Request: fold
Amino acid sequence: MAKVNRQITLAARPVGFPKVSDFHLVYSPVPSPGEGEVLVRSVYLSLDPYMRGRMNAAESYARPVAIGEVMTGGAVASVVESRHADFYAGDFVEGMLGWQEYAIARGHELRKIDPGLAPVSTALGVLGMPGLTAYFGLLDICDPQPGETVVVSGAAGAVGMIAGQIAKIKGCRVVGVAGSDAKISWLLDDLGFDGAFNYKTVEDSYGTLMELCPAGIDVYFDNVGGTISDAVLRLINAKARISVCGQISQYNLEEPEMGPRWLGQLVLKQAKVQGFLVTGYAQRFPIGLRQLAKWLNQGKLKYREEVAQGIEAAPQAFIGMLQGRNQGKQLVQLS
Amino acid sequence: MAKVNRQITLAARPVGFPKVSDFHLVYSPVPSPGEGEVLVRSVYLSLDPYMRGRMNAAESYARPVAIGEVMTGGAVASVVESRHADFYAGDFVEGMLGWQEYAIARGHELRKIDPGLAPVSTALGVLGMPGLTAYFGLLDICDPQPGETVVVSGAAGAVGMIAGQIAKIKGCRVVGVAGSDAKISWLLDDLGFDGAFNYKTVEDSYGTLMELCPAGIDVYFDNVGGTISDAVLRLINAKARISVCGQISQYNLEEPEMGPRWLGQLVLKQAKVQGFLVTGYAQRFPIGLRQLAKWLNQGKLKYREEVAQGIEAAPQAFIGMLQGRNQGKQLVQLS
Reply:
């Protein structure tokens, strides 16, 4: 009897916030690898904000997921059967394997993971795409200097927590913005942020930021956008650098949001705003991973994971992540 | 009998667009230079958009002009009397001399001009602050490459006309946005822009830009902001670079204007937006001036001046410039 592969497909394009009914759980036979291919069974599936964009019909930097197609996503997997010379059954790998239990991949699409180096789930977090996103987005675009003030929005998320800690390693004063008191405590007590606040409960983000950043803001690492960014922009110092990683506050809006214009502020402050995709740094991934692993092993980088159980839990966990309900990197553990 | 110095002072802080009554014409005695100082008589006064910011009470990157104080501004002047070893009567100089006929300056505040090199008025235009602004703002921030599409807003203004021509020198396809048909003809027929349109008369700036930039927009040099920038932002290519020089559309608003949020677009396009002040490049001014003078003498840079007559004409000419009525660099010739 053929084994069964459970997959999550896109059932409908969401209007505003995705609903569980925008996804389907489907069953298909586990495929066999062709020449040069590898059959893998996923252990952890990564859930990330960028996936919301792939659910839209509009082409952006990547092809949208088609209706009925398996949702796109990174995963850590173990090799079941290999017809590629570089991989053996039992190897751990990471790749864009989709929201499914089994996948076929070509060898060059997979990155081999050393399970002795760190828990394999970190290949989807601090030692994977989120870690690299924080590393290059902060260091390459903002070049934070000792004593500078760095603000991170989405500071307790998979990318933000690493960005803030790298800024601490670089000797900066780091202030985090997040959406729950538990997240704020974690940033302050466990990650050593110099300041943090819950934007959902403070009355005045601008005033709070001003208090927490008495010397102004030199660097802003933005995962969220919207009114938090508006407040930060008013407080930037001369020669400020702003790295735009994501805009999760805007992804589920049914109508585009308007905001204050601030190009004039960029002129007055001789400031830079730069958007980026981590894929733009692909050639330097090995350098970034080596440094992140070193910091991790030195105890300078901490991380936190929120793990949902079973592929059927992925849609709800994804929606929860878009709502900020996760505490740390959102994963789905597949049995 | 002491000679009379006619000066324009700030009479009132404008609300919205400045009015002629926001300025005063006052008479004072021509002062005498102290040790190390130079008495100059201005020949051309420069009128520039940044002066609008100095009329506000708010501190920005520079001190505001106080009520009753002579308006700030650059000018070309001839030396009347020198008590500084580097200057002689009859020398031409450029400096921040204010809206007045005579001024006292210290030697290090003045730049000597060679009247044999080019008409002395160019020290306020192509071979002065506007030229340097275009040079560094375009080349340093955007690094335009041959074949790329460059859009310039305020393209017929003192800075825009130079920025567009430098982009042409660099082998780019250059599209200008300006506010009158006469300006558009000049950009297309005299400066050799590849495309240009009058944003005041086209129905759809976005559609027009899309037609004129069939390969998308790689570089945007922005003097204007507002809805023109909104349209440009929708059409940028991957890795686009945006240099923000000014935001003249916003300077006279009584209420801050809202606009569509586009940080998300910067992420998708891995694009950069950088504001700048030309003073940030002061150490490299000699390099910039040398290159601009070379291009000017090679006939590769053209310019146009709008010259008002007499210090008393300065307020109206300034207001006209903010309204876009000038054809080229706005100067006031002092008798």
Chain A touches chain B at residues 60-61, 222, 225-226, 229, 238, 244-247, 250, 256-261, 263-277, 280 (CB under 8 Å).
